[in-house]
Amino acid sequence: MAIVSLTEMVVLKPALNSFGRWDADDHVRRVEQLIARMKENGQLRFRVALGNFFTGPGSIARSYRTARTTMMVGKQRMPESRSYFYQDLMLAGAA
Asked: Are 89 and 74 in contact (CB under 8 A)?
């Protein structure tokens, strides 16, 4: 975890599941569970963005950039939402 600014925190989590695979749906479920727990335990307002998964050199930086872009686009398109997922916004943009 890294505090980027007074209003931004970055959390890096292992991307692959126990089978060594990227499962975007599992990550979405985990984010939704986190939001539910945060709502139960306090009134802190926050947003979560999940970027894309990449492999190879620079993959963490690329994932971070897609998460930041996802947050920016998500806030513009769906300001009432508290979570934004790269896969959803990418598909919505293609529709």
From this structure: yes
